[in-house]
Amino acid sequence: MKKIIVIIYSLIHFLVDLSCAILVNHLSTHIMNPGPNIFIAILIYNFFAFAIQLPIGILADKINKNALCSSIGCILVASAFAFTKFGVFSCLIAGIGNAMFHVGGGIDVLNMSNKKATPSGIFVSTGAMGIFLGSKSASVGFNKYYILIIVLLLSAILLFWLYNQIKNIDMMKNEIVIIPNININEIIAIICLITTVIIRGYVGLILAFEWKSKFILALISTFAVVFGKMLGGIIGDKIGFIKISLLSLLVSAILFIFAFNNSILGILAILFFNMTMPITLIALCQIKNLHTPRP
Predict the structure, then answer these.
(1) How far is CA 158 from CA 12, 66, 147, 229, 267, in A?
(2) Tell me: the pLDDT tens digits for 200-220?
(3) Pick from 95, 106, 94: nearest CA to 69
(4) Between 117 and which of 64, 98, 183, 278 could a Cys-Cys bridge form, CB atoms 3.0 to 4.6 Å apart?
C-alpha cells in the first residue's frame, strides 16, 4: 500500500503542477496583456499556492482527511480553467487548489514514510518536470485544456478512493500540533533548513544560466532536479541525512563556481544541490516536540 500511495501522489503532483503552469502560461500569453494585470495575477497565484499552505496545513491536521484535501485541490485546479477570462480569479482558485493538493499529499506521504526520506524525495521530485513542461506549453501550441480538466477530475476520484482505503489506518492519521518547546540549537537548525529552501527557490526561479536557453539542456537540467530529489532521499536513508547533506552541498557549492560557463558542471551542481530537498522535509518533521501523537 505504501508504494501505491507514493506512486499515486507523485503522478498527480506532476499533473497538478503541469496544469497550473499551463494555466498561468495561457493567461500570460492569450488572456491578459503583459504588465500590471498579469503581474498581479501571478503574484496572487504564488501567494495562494505557497503562503496559505500553513493555515491549510493546520486545518488539515485537525480534520485529518488528507487525501480528501488533495482531491478537492485537484477539482479546484480543474475549475480554474473555467474562469480564465477572469485572470486574477482563475489564479486564485488554481493557487488554493495547488496548496490543498500539496498539503494533503505531503502529509500522507510523510505519515507513511516512517522517518524515511525516500518517499518524500519521490513525491516532491515530479513537480519540477510538470512546471517545466507546463511553462513550454505555449511554444508547442498546446491548447487542449479539456484533457487536463478530465484527467484532473479523474485524479480527484482516484484520491477520493485512496481516502476511503486509508482513512482507518492508524499510521496514516495526522498528529496533533502543539506549541513546541524548542531550544536554541533547534531554532538554528530550523533557520538553516529554511535557508536551504530559500536558496533552492532562488536557484530554480531567479538564477539564470545562459546554456539553459537551449531546450535540450534546460530539459536535462530539469531531469537533474527530479533525480537529485529522488537520489537525495534514497542515499540519505542509506548513509545518513547529515552525511548526504554535507556531501551534496559541498560538491554543489564547488560546481556552481563553474556552472555559468559549463553546462555539464551546471547540471551536476543542480543535481547535487537538490539532493537536500527530501532531507529538509524529514529533518523539519523530526525536530522534537513539534507534534504529539493522536490518541
Answers:
(1) 10, 13, 16, 25, 35
(2) 777 666 667 888 888 899 999
(3) 106
(4) 278
Question: How large is the angle between the packed helices 87-112 and 36-46, nearest 10 degrees?
Answer: 20
Rounded (10°) CA dihedral 61, 18, 79, 140: 170
Mind listing the pLDDT tens digit for each residue in 49-106? 988 888 898 888 888 889 999 999 999 999 999 988 887 899 999 999 999 999 999 9
How many CB atoms sit inside 10 A of residue 179's CB?
Answer: 7
Instruction: Give me the helices (H) in the chain, please.
Output: 2-26, 36-46, 53-63, 66-80, 87-112, 118-135, 145-166, 184-205, 215-239, 241-256, 263-273, 277-285
Cell of 92: 486564485
Question: What grid cell was written down for 72?
Answer: 478537492
Asked if residues 156 and 75 have their Cβ atoms less than 8 Å apart, the reply is yes
Q: Which residues pair with 177 in a beta bridge?
A: 291
Q: Where are the alpha helices (DSSP H) in 113-214?
A: 118-135, 145-166, 184-205
What is the torsional sign of CA 178, 181, 187, 190?
A: negative
Whole-model pTM over 0.85: yes
